[in-house]
Structures are given as structure tokens and as C-alpha cells.
Design a protein that fits this description.
Blueprint lengths: L2 H16 L1 E5 L12 H17 L2 H6 L10 E5 L2 H14 L4 E2 L2 E4 H6 L7 E2 L1 E2 H15 L1 H13 L3 E10 L1 E2 L4 E4 L2 E5 L4 H7 L15 E11 L2 E2 L2 E2 L3 H11 L1 E4 L14 H12 L4 E8 L13 E6 L8 E2 L2 H16 L2 H19 L3 H16 L9 H13 L3 H23 L6 E5 L2 E4 H22 L5 H4 L7
Helix pairs in contact: 1-4, 1-7, 2-6, 4-6, 6-7, 10-11, 12-13, 12-16, 13-15, 13-16, 14-15
């Protein structure tokens, strides 16, 4: 905007501030009297600072009444001043407005409404947001933000992903734009670090969990409303209108729906010897952005309630290993990644399960998917299984002989678990040698993990005919 236009906006905002009431959003205003402007300013400032500095708070407040406590909105009493401000918006944002509606990025990020004809928000909502910024940040900041809104091509938001299975002592940046934040041991400790937060979920839900924060940018921040007639058109057009990517040089080509979060969890699981899984994920968009017209900080969320599993403490070494494995996974041939999904997922499931029978079934499926993926049923599967595994993992003749015995025991245990539903207390590995089942299963998990990582590092599954003694056939 020109300096003259900025000065006009300053004057209009000054006049609006002098003719302002803070009214309840509810239509039944008799039950909720108007709020004092100074009190509203204080609440806005506290809320915006609280969420912008502590995005963890949205996780805690997701199911509580304080998640969206701003049940009041600024109202310009003078219709003349309001009309002048709306006209000013229409003039400056003309290219984004159609039939008194404007489509902000927040519609896509954290929600909007669909009326069957066009999608977007009434421009009154943009005026409300501008007035909130003027109230909380001052008129000069509101003018600056408005001016940027006419020129800026992109904005920023975050994905917040609550991970279970690993715990950190300090914040660790995995990649540019992707970091891990440690959570305190209990809800009460978390509340101590987040004054004013509330939480109504299970006690100690956050204990032993880690927050994964992924920074994204969205472009554009404002767009002309889309004209649609079907839900399919809605999905197609909204996805093609807003471009969303990870705010990182490493992942500049990854859009929000393409980012392989499952592969990142797999890499963390393998590196940390733990079942790293998602407990909750949501979108975080700061409320003080001009293009956030959705009256909220988050776009809903997805909960994944599971029985509590084991928690592994991870440090820089484990995270560096996870980065290495993740880079391998995202650059691996797609067919190899696909073949590895069953082994990795079953290995993670075995790490999460507490029951030995479930563990050995999962590990048996994982190992058979690794070593027998190309075999149809025949009477020599057990032999092929232990022969391939011992040759692939063994360092020398003696090591392979020991591995043959161990993989034979694994195959037998898996069969008993599936067909009988029972496991012995001890496992006979070779003549004169038995070990408790509680010691053998961690050994099986480690052998499975070694197998997965070796295939990852090789970039492909082995050619069994070439591997085993150079034989032409098995």
C-alpha cells in the first residue's frame, strides 16, 4: 500500500477502536454481557503468547473447555465506520474476493465451511481478525500485517505429532524444519511448565512421550473463493489451490500429504530398539495471523489410544542413526520399501506387545517375509528359512552353524504359537543348550532387526542363489 493508504487505514482503525464493543459470539447476549476492551486485550495477548510460545499446550487443551475460550468477538458499533473498513478491504483485496467472500489458507489448514456453491469466509471475518490484531498488538502492527497480506505469497504453520515409545532429555533437531521435543514425566509436571493450561485426559498420558514438530509453509495465504458443485470438486480444487511443503531444504519436494511420517517412525523404532508410534497429531496455526479466520489454533486432531508400551530413552546417537535409516528409506527403490513394510511393521508390533506368544508370532511373520518372500508352500520351508538367514547374517562357518540352530528354534516356536497357542518356558537351541524363553525372544528381535537393517544398507534383498555358496539353485 502507499503511505497515503496506510494513513487512511490507521485513521479508520483509530475510529473503530473508539466505537468498539466486545460482544459474545452467542446470539443470546442477555446471558453473557459485553466484555471490557482492556480485559479482552489482556486475554488475547495471553492466549496468543501462550500458544505461539508453547505449542504443546494445544495437545493438553484439545479436549478441555479452555481449548477455545475466546467466546467474544470485537464489534464496531458505528455502521458507518464498519462500512468504510469493509470498503477498504474490498479495494485492497479485490483480487481475492468474490460475492463478499475470501478464501484464506486457514480454511484448508484448520477448517472452514462448505455451502455447496462456494467455499470461503465472509469478509466480515477478515475485518474481525484485523480488529483483533489491532486490539492485541496495536494499530501500527495491524497496518503492517494488513500491508504484508496484500503482498506475501506464503505463510507458516506446524504439524504437531505426539510420539510414544521414546523419551528425550533435551530437544534434538533431526533435520532442518523437523525437531523432537521432550515432554516431562507426568501431566502435573507439564502443567507446571505451561501455566494456565488444563488437561482432562488420562493421568500420565504424556509421560514417556516426545513431540515431533514439522515446520511447513503454505502458499498462497489468500485466494479467491472456489466455485464448486460437488464434494469431489471441493477436494480436487482445494488441494490444487494451496501448495504446502516442508519448510526445509532437505524435504522441499515433500507436500504435507506426501511426507513419509510412517517411514520416520520406522526409522526411529529401528534406531531406538523401540516401538515408536503416533499417539496424536494435529495442525498448529498461530491465531495472530491475518489469514487465520477459523477462530482457532488447530485443525482438529487424530487420537490413537493404545495400551502403554515400553519407553526407550534416546540421545543424539540414536537420533543420528534414525536420520541415517530414514534417508535410506526415502531414497530406496519403491519395490524394496514395499517388501520391507511387513517385516518392519511386525517388528515394531513385536516390540510393543508384552505377551510372548504375540511377540513370537509377529517376529515369525517378519522373518518369513524377509527370508521366504519368494517361496510358495513346500516341505522345505524350514530348511530354506534357517539356511538363508544363517548365510545372510553369519560371519563365518561357526557363526552360521549357531545361527542355523537358532533360526530352526525360531521356526518351531512360531509354529507352536500359531497352532497350539502355547510356548515352552525354555527353548532348546542345540544339544545340551537351553535358554529361558524370556531371554530368547529379545535375541530373536535383535536378529530380525539386524536382518532389516542389513537389507536397508544393501539397498535390496539378496539374490539367494548367488549368496549361498555360489550355488545355481537351492
Amino acid at each position: 500500500m502507499t503511505e497515503e493508504r496506510k494513513q487512511k487505514l490507521r485513521q479508520l482503525l483509530c475510529e473503530a477502536m473508539e466505537n468498539l464493543e466486545i460482544r459474545p459470539l452467542s446470539s443470546n447476549s442477555s446471558q453473557s454481557p459485553s466484555m471490557d476492551v482492556h480485559n479482552y486485550r489482556r486475554r488475547l495477548q495471553q492466549r496468543w503468547t501462550f500458544y505461539s510460545e508453547s505449542p504443546i499446550a494445544i495437545l493438553m487443551n484439545y479436549n478441555s473447555l479452555t481449548y477455545n475460550p475466546l467466546t467474544y468477538n470485537p464489534h464496531i458499533v458505528s455502521e458507518t465506520i464498519k462500512s468504510k473498513l469493509l470498503d477498504f478491504i474490498r479495494e485492497e483485496f479485490a483480487r481475492f474476493i468474490h460475492e463478499e467472500k475470501i478464501l484464506p489458507a486457514s480454511f484448508f489448514l484448520i477448517g472452514g465451511f462448505f455451502d455447496g456453491l462456494s467455499i470461503g469466509f465472509p469478509i466480515d471475518r477478515l475485518l474481525d481478525q484485523l480488529m483483533k490484531i489491532a486490539i492485541a498488538r496495536g494499530i501500527e502492527e495491524a497496518v503492517l500485517v494488513f500491508d504484508r497480506g496484500t503482498e506475501e505469497t506464503h505463510g507458516f504453520f506446524q504439524d504437531l505429532v505426539l510420539l510414544e515409545g521414546i523419551k528425550l532429555k533435551t530437544e534434538i533437531q533431526m533435520f532442518e524444519g523437523i525437531r523432537l521435543l521432550p515432554l516431562p514425566n507426568s501431566t502435573s509436571e507439564l502443567l507446571y511448565y505451561l501455566p494456565g493450561a488444563s488437561y482432562s485426559g488420562p493421568e500420565n498420558f504424556f509421560s514417556g512421550k516426545t513431540l515431533l514438530v514439522i515446520d511447513y509453509f503454505v502458499s498462497p495465504i489468500l485466494h479467491k473463493p472456489l466455485q464448486i458443485s460437488t464434494i469431489q470438486e471441493y477436494g480436487d480444487q482445494i488441494n490444487s489451490t494451496f501448495r504446502i511443503k516442508v519448510n526445509s531444504k532437505d524435504f522441499a519436494n515433500f507436500k504435507i500429504d506426501d511426507f513419509p511420517l510412517n517411514l520416520l517412525c520406522q526409522a526411529l523404532s529401528l534406531a531406538c530398539h523401540s516401538a515408536v508410534r503416533i499417539s496424536f497429531d494435529t495442525t498448529f496455526l498461530a491465531e495472530d495471523k491475518l489469514y487465520n479466520l477459523s477462530h482457532g489454533v488447530g485443525g482438529g486432531g487424530n487420537w490413537h489410544f493404545r495400551p502403554p508400551g515400553n519407553v526407550t530413552e534416546a540421545g543424539q546417537h540414536q537420533i543420528d542413526e534414525a536420520k541415517r535409516l530414514f534417508n535410506i528409506l526415502i531414497n530406496l527403490d519403491s519395490s524394496t520399501v514395499k517388501k520391507l513394510q511387513i517385516p518392519i511393521d511386525r517388528w515394531i508390533k513385536s516390540a510393543a506387545n508384552k505377551d510372548f506368544i504375540d511377540k513370537i508370532i509377529d517376529l515369525g511373520i517378519a522373518l518369513e517375509a524377509l527370508y521366504l518372500f519368494d517361496r510358495d508352500g513346500n516341505s522345505e520351508l524350514s530348511f530354506q528359512f534357517r539356511l538363508r538367514a544363517s548365510w545372510y547374517l553369519g560371519r563365518d562357518k561357526a557363526d552360521r552353524e549357531m545361527l542355523i540352530d537358532e533360526f530352526k528354534a525360531i521356526y518351531t516356536l512360531r509354529s507352536k504359537a500359531v497352532h497350539i497357542g502355547e510356548l515352552p518356558q525354555t527353548v532348546k537351541i542345540r544339544k545340551g543348550e537351553s535358554v529361558p524363553i524370556s531371554e530368547f525372544i529379545p535375541k530373536v528381535q535383535d536378529l530380525c532387526r539386524q536382518s532389516i537393517i542389513k537389507i536397508l544398507e544393501a539397498g535390496e534383498f539378496p539374490d539367494w542363489n548367488s549368496l549361498i555358496l555360489g550355488a545355481e539353485s537351492l
